[in-house]
Amino acid sequence: MAAVELLPLLQLPLCALVAVGLDRLFGEPRRFHPLVGFGRLAQGIEAALRRFPTRHNWQKSAGIAAWALAVLPFAGLALWLRNIAPAWLVVPLDVVLLYFALGAESLREHVVPIAAALDAGELPAAREAVGRIVSRDTTALDEPAVARAAVESTLENGSDAVFGALFWFALLGGPGALLFRLANTLDAMWGYRNERYLHFGRAAARVDDLLGYLPARLCALTYAVLGRGGQALACWRAQAPLWDSPNAGPVMAAGAGSLGVSLGGAAVYHGQREARPALGVGPAPTAADIRRALTLVRRGIGLWLLAGFVPALVWGALHA
To answer: Does the keyword Zinc apply (predicted)?
Structure first.
């Protein structure tokens, strides 16, 4: 009887463990990736809605409509299927949805070549590799700037591509992970403060900020726990409020403090030099620090998976 009562507490953490394992083994699908199709759908929705008047208020409304048309049907369908599916089908549905929402292995595949190129003294290759994961201009970056961009992206994507999905999976199962990943994808597509997306992409950026608010702070806390905790928390408190993004600030400040490196500083975006606040404390990062940042994310995944089993372990201890 006790074992039967324990199963509901074990279901989500076991599904998360399997999904993380699948991501580690296979990474993201090489062909027919659902998010590629979703991106094309989002582009089609944007193109259709942009045919109408271009006034600011209309663009804001169009952005809200575009977000709803792109995300809600899929998230709603996933939630409906999960609610009507027999118990034996809920588990594979949750595993598949979380697997598609996770991007830990993809992050590793993009980051490791940057460190390898820097180690080999191949700066042009390192610039090209880091350019695939950041939006800043990488053509003139020196070695410390390449490493800085890679570490920043690793820490931030740890929150966006891993911990955010795990957080919403813990709350709402597979549909929650799907909702977060789709919203985060639209923010990556539309959430720019430029002429094209300043108004149209505002809804996508705000929803992503809202959905990522708690996961980002739990991610920052995770980075602190797994590294130089006091320094990470001090950087978080002092530096995160200076950062434009309400979620990237805590994540990167805590991550930089945990690793003991200096991030932030000036960067060029779309031909414009931006003076970004400093993050962290210590020397400029190197190739070794890129790998340390990736290890921090991976250890964080292990910590979160372990934490998922805590309720079941406590329940089992109390009813032993």
So the answer is: no
DSSP bridge pairs for 274: 267
Locate 261 and state its tokens: 């490196």
Please tell me the total count of domains within the chain: 1
What pLDDT, in 10s, does the model give residues 65-85?
999 999 999 999 999 999 999
Q: Per-residue pLDDT tens for 115-156?
A: 999 999 999 999 999 999 998 999 999 999 999 999 999 999
* Chain centroid to CA 174: 16
Residue that has been written with the tokens 């709803």 in this structure? 68
Distance CA 286, CA 288 (A): 5
Amino acid at 135: S
Phi, psi of 280 (to 5 degrees): 80, -170
Entry field: residues in the chain: 320
> Quick check: helix, strand or coil at residue 217?
helix
CA distance linking residue 167 with residue 184, whole number of Å: 14
Q: Which domain holds residue 14?
A: 2-318
In sequence order, the β-bridge partners of residue 116 are: none
